[in-house]
Automatic annotation (TrEMBL):
GO terms for cellular component: endoplasmic reticulum lumen. This is protein disulfide-isomerase. Pfam families: Thioredoxin, Thioredoxin_6. It comes from the Eukaryota. Keywords: Chaperone, Disulfide bond, Endoplasmic reticulum, Isomerase, Redox-active center, Repeat, Signal. Residues 1-17 form the signal peptide. It is an enzyme of class 5 (isomerase). Residues 516-555 are annotated as: Disordered. It comes from Oceanites oceanicus. The gene is Pdia2.
């Protein structure tokens, strides 16, 4: 349930679930079994350790290495995709190979490469072990393969003449072409850098004078070409999406066959900004949320999403897309317009928004940085009404719509008090009580792992006169002034005026919890423990834009 999981997008925020368990350090060399430099494989993945790592680097020009922990749930879920990608790349003639290191056993390698979370993927090029590149692609087989292929070949195709350029531009739905008079210039190198990272787009580069002349260019320029399909299946016009200057505001609308981005001679080409703009402008003006488009939607890094929930089987509701699309151009780059079919792929995200299929059609805007949701009047679907509503939200004139479950009848009779959005304020900010609250998600494995300790803590303090142990399901309840960015999050609300809040970030066991409570919301000073290996101290699952946990266990 892609969106529901930690939305439950950064609609709750490419990706896997997580586990938290205490890992046991395994000896690097088992007694009587000394490791050699032989390269062994498991499911097409090279099994690496301290004794064969150098050999692997010398024999494989491009080696993507996963540093993992056997107990890590993220790693366990990545394993099949990683093996699939390894097999696919192994059967290709290119130099790309995949390997893995058990970082809990190979402590020296983990320390050498600064491994602080699991899994960590690093790319080693041409045997260089001092400048490994961080993996930035999707955590699935297709994403890994595409990322490695891009690095195994030129990131941009050199276009030699007008015929090859014309064929190239028309070859894909989305094509980016950089025109540079000097392919060794800083601007061209920045362009190559973007081309290496943005593996889901096709990049070309040109330096020939005849190509500058053919495309009417006189200075170094980046052009983005895109074919945009209309709403009707099988139809739609072809449109080239404009790319504005990196130093100019985003356009309110686009309707040209080609728009150029001239490189500023003084400022040059900023790779990060170009990447962001390519992500923004690679999207259609209005997207439909599907399995195929979800990665595009959330990788665009657009700060607000305006959602139209509708039932596509209703012709009346489908007609609402016209006004929705008409409003979109004014907010391009600031607000992404998305249509969600409540009876299709989008059905699973409805609980996150507190909606049922019968609530369609509904309009909702969400701020991606904090998951704040704003409901629009369901009777107003004109483009003018939509633009007015969005601008009011952006101007801070609309209050967010906060979800709240109904409190259980016995919510305050249990050792651990069950809080909801409606009851949180009166309990957490009771000036006569010290309240310790666990903010959790039902699906979160870290939360499940500490559930027994939290219940035991509740039992220990259930009769205490001024200490309250409580919990709140953050997937079903939202608070106006508190944003939860990971699960579980523990906050302590001390008695007295001032509405104070202290985040607890220490060990999650009953005795440490008790020391914290008995000491008034702090832990007594103790000498730091010395450990030979990093320990998992946070074990928190972070919401992500795709509505799933982050892909790594932090150490």
């Amino acid at each position: 349930l892609v969106w529901l999981l930690v939305l439950s997008l950064a609609w709750l925020g490419p990706a896997l679930g997580g586990e938290e368990e205490d890992g046991t350090v395994v000896a690097e060399e088992e007694e009587g079994n000394v490791l050699s430099d032989e390269l062994r494989e498991e499911d097409g993945v090279l099994v690496l350790h301290e004794h064969n790592f150098a050999r692997a680097l010398s024999e494989h020009r491009l080696l993507l290495v996963e540093f993992y922990a056997p107990w890590c749930g993220h790693c366990q879920r990545l394993a099949p995709a990683f093996a699939q990608a390894a097999t696919e790349l192994r059967n290709e003639p290119g130099p790309a190979r995949l390997g893995k290191v058990d970082a809990t056993a190979q402590v020296a390698l983990a320390n050498e490469f600064g491994i602080t979370s699991y899994p960590t993927l690093k790319l080693f090029c041409d045997g260089n072990r001092t400048h490994a590149l961080a993996y930035t692609g999707r955590m699935d087989a297709e994403g890994i393969v595409r990322w490695m292929r891009r690095r195994a070949s030129p990131s941009a195709t050199l276009l030699q003449d007008t015929d090859t350029a014309a064929t190239f531009v028309s070859s894909q739905d989305l094509v980016v072409v950089g025109f540079f008079k000097d392919l060794e210039s800083e601007a061209a190198q920045a362009f190559y850098e973007v081309a290496s990272e943005v593996v889901d787009m096709t990049f070309g580069v040109a330096k020939a004078a005849e190509l500058f002349q053919a495309y009417g260019l006189s200075v170094d320029t980046v052009c983005l070409f895109k074919k945009v399909r209309g709403w009707q299946e099988g139809g739609g016009a072809i449109l080239v999406l404009p790319l504005p200057s990196l130093h100019q505001p985003l356009p309110q609308q686009f309707d040209e066959g080609r728009t150029d981005f001239p490189v500023d001679p003084a400022r040059g080409l900023d790779a990060a900004e170009l990447t962001r703009l390519l992500r923004v402008h690679s999207l259609e003006l209005v997207m439909e949320f599907t399995k195929e488009t979800s990665d595009q939607i959330f990788s665009a890094q657009i700060p607000h999403h305006m959602l139209l929930f509708l039932n596509k089987s209703s012709s009346v509701q489908l007609a609402l897309r016209d006004g929705f699309r008409a409003a979109a151009g004014a907010f391009r780059g600031e607000v992404l317009f998305v249509v969600v079919d409540v009876t299709g792929y989008g059905a699973d995200v409805l609980p996150f928004f507190g909606l049922m299929p019968a609530d369609a059609p509904t309009l909702c805007l969400i701020k991606m940085e904090n998951n704040r949701k704003y409901r629009m009047d369901q009777d107003a679907f004109s483009d003018t009404a939509i633009r007015t509503f969005i601008q009011a939200v952006l101007d801070g004139k609309v209050k967010p719509h906060l979800l709240s479950a109904e409190p259980p009848e016995d919510w305050d009779m249990r050792p651990v008090k069950v809080l909801v959005g409606k009851t949180f304020e009166q309990v957490a900010f009771d000036e006569t009580k010290n309240v310790f609250v666990k903010f959790y998600a039902p699906w979160c494995s870290h939360c499940q792992a500490m559930a027994a300790a939290w219940e035991e803590l509740g039992e220990r303090y259930k009769d205490h006169e001024n200490i309250v142990i409580a919990e709140l399901d953050s997937t079903a309840n939202e608070l106006e002034n508190i944003t939860i960015s990971g699960f579980p999050t523990l906050h302590y609300f001390p008695a007295g005026p001032g509405r104070k809040m202290v985040e607890y970030k220490n060990a999650r066991d009953v005795e440490t919890f008790s020391k914290f409570l008995e000491n008034g919301g702090t832990l007594p000073e103790e000498p730091p423990a010395v450990s030979k290996t990093p320990e998992n101290s946070t074990g928190r699952e972070e919401p992500s834009p795709l509505g799933t946990a982050e892909t790594r266990d932090e150490l």
